[in-house]
Design brief:
The protein is an alpha/beta fold and 317 residues long. Helix content is 47%, strand content 15%. The protein has 14 helices and ten strands. The protein has helices at residues 23-26, 30-43, 47-53, 56-59, 62-83, 97-104, 110-127, 143-151, 176-185, 209-220, 243-253, 260-269, 283-291, 303-312, and strands spanning 7-11, 90-93, 133-139, 159-166, 169-175, 193-197, 231-232, 258-259, 274-277, 296-299. The strands form two sheets. A five-stranded parallel beta sheet has the order 7-2-1-9-10, with helices on both faces. Strand 9, helix 13 and strand 10 (296-299) form a beta-alpha-beta unit. Helix 5 (62-83) runs parallel beside helix 6. The chain is globular and about 55 Å long. The chain starts with 6 loop residues before the first strand and ends in a 5-residue tail after the last helix. GO terms for molecular function: [acyl-carrier-protein] S-malonyltransferase activity. Residues 10-315 form the Malonyl-CoA:ACP transacylase (MAT) domain. One of its GO terms (biological process) is fatty acid biosynthetic process.
Amino acid sequence: MSEAHAHAFLFPGQGSQSVGMLQALAGTQPAIAETYAEASEVLGFDLAGLVRAGPKEELDRTENTQPALLAAAVAVWRAWQARSGARPLALAGHSLGEYSALVAAESISFADALRLVRLRGQLMQAAVPEGQGGMAAVIGLDDEAVARLCAEYPGHELLTPANYNSPGQVVVAGETPALDWLLANGKAKGARMVMRVGMSVPSHCALLKDAAAQLAEALAATAVQAPKIPVLHNLDAAPRQDPQEIRAALAAQLHQPVQWTRSIQALAGQGVGHWLECGPGKVLTGLVKRSVDGARLYALEDPAQFDAALQTLKGVN
């Protein structure tokens, strides 16, 4: 592959869901409806109907959001595969999206991944009761400054960086009193903005260590193959081939920070110039725009951008 056409697929995580997601693309790509139908059959409930018509409150329940987003991402990947022979240099998924990337790389089967992420959502929600924790984005401070800000919290509750998303954007996880303190004091301590994000569970922090141990048991019973396309893991922005190492990274990811900035920098360092967001929303292409100068960005939920990416990467092997 010429460097000019080196491309990577990025798979979104929780927060990118919406009722009716991928509706426009589904009009031209049969793989969308087919994949939702397959997911509904595996899970034993009408996931396709929930995605199509809601209600939003039900779709936003973590145990439903995670399989819905996995199905959406895999649907877009299958639609792309049906139209293109272009092979990406690598794959990466943000948090939940790492499972979608591993399905695309044929490391984990779609059915197994659906069951895993539904369990993952249930374990996450059970780990911290509703209202006792959450997440907030800190804008305008570098990674080290956010870590120092968290360390300044005078209480005993947990407050810690959870998602290193892009230069100047770090999402922090914590218990509710600590987040309230951060929202009240963050700007005075140098942040340009501090805002709650739509997660009722404080992910990627020590509060989910027990949930990670339970998830590890399910992963141990799941068939995992060496990926056919490199997948960069959230844990350390590195790819893995050994199935046991992949299982360990997926479990550890639940209670350790997402190293997304490092993942994007690693891909850019390998010559990736075209970035394709494989699923609903434009969150990840937005983060790449803040991280990589001159990036060519495609949010594949948009039929026009889907077609533009196909045209640009036509004939690339």
